[in-house]
User: What shape does this take?
Amino acid sequence: MTPLAALIRRDIKIALRVGGGALIGVLFFLTVTVLMPFAIGPDLPLLARLGPAILWLGALLASLLTLDRLFTADHEDGSLDLIVMGRTPLELACAAKALAHWLAAGVPLIAATPVLGLLLNLDAAATSAVALTLLVGTPALTFTGMIGAALAVTLHRGGLLLAVLVLPLSIPVLIFGVAASQAAIAGPLSFGTPFSILCALSLVSFVVGPFAAAASLRHGLD
Amino acid sequence: MFSGLDFAAASGEVLAVVGPNGSGKTSLLRLIAGLLVPGGGSIGLEGGEAELTLPEQSHYLGHRDALKPALSVAENLSFWRDFLGGATGDVKECLTAVGLGHATYLPAAFLSAGQRRRLSIARLLVVRRPVWLLDEPTSALDTAGQGLFVGVMREHLASGGIIVAATHTPLGIEASELRMGGGK
Assistant: This one.
């Protein structure tokens, strides 16, 4: 098995086992979405209009929830030292870790979206539009969030600092994700424009995220 | 932290880094491992694989064991074998060599401190690296474990390896000594 495949496999295994974070994110997503209709009230058209935004916010917060452990867990047990020393370029190792995190924590969120869409009075077309935008947009959340996760190791602060660092970076993703979903549901804008920008944001994060995270880890270890 | 340090270790040699707490033994090992950036000076390996850096040809056995409690003993070791790459050995054989053959499928969460250390030592065996950087390698090991580790080190030296070990207790193996200064 290649080093990167081994890293991805290990991280997914840990996330899916007891104590891993994969299901926590989905539970959080479920909680946020289930509580929303109770807070907003039984106004079905209003729920349908807010639905994509609620789903996107829920997914954003749920993916942040487990992201701060991306590097701190490896830092605490010493694995990060060996990963930095290894023959695999650190940038690729970071990208592999982010991919594993997305597969274990991001994909379940997307899979849960059709179920949660029902609770928000979204029809099949609207739900699939939201799921599609999440599929394209959540990698951007993970890969930009990874920069914050690496800084959290460097600065010896986890949790809240990550949210403060990462949330501003994820605002564009949120804007275009919701805009694309709304465009698909109600118009009048075309779906293609915000969706293309969302794709572009993801692609940019694939390039910038691993390099920024690796640079932060290299200079921050002690 | 320290300056004016000049040392060398040849193939088949052990360099024991000794000194009081806070004298910079761990920092020195982490410098060699490339995990800290030196303020000045240079560290190099002569006659290694030319296209690889010194850290890429080194094993670092630190205070922390780099084990995941959720994974089994064999999964932990197989991961490091696959990730570190290079010339690798058989996971089962290496586990037997460090006395963990019976615990292959046990989650690492259930291991004692000494067993965790043994599993880290198995990492040194499963992937071949010419340079071993060991930080307090025998802490947490029982007498039998220490004896076993001496055997492991001897084998490594016989195959031309280099060991740099920070230690308080005698390693049980003939070594040249690098004494670090007071805790400044």
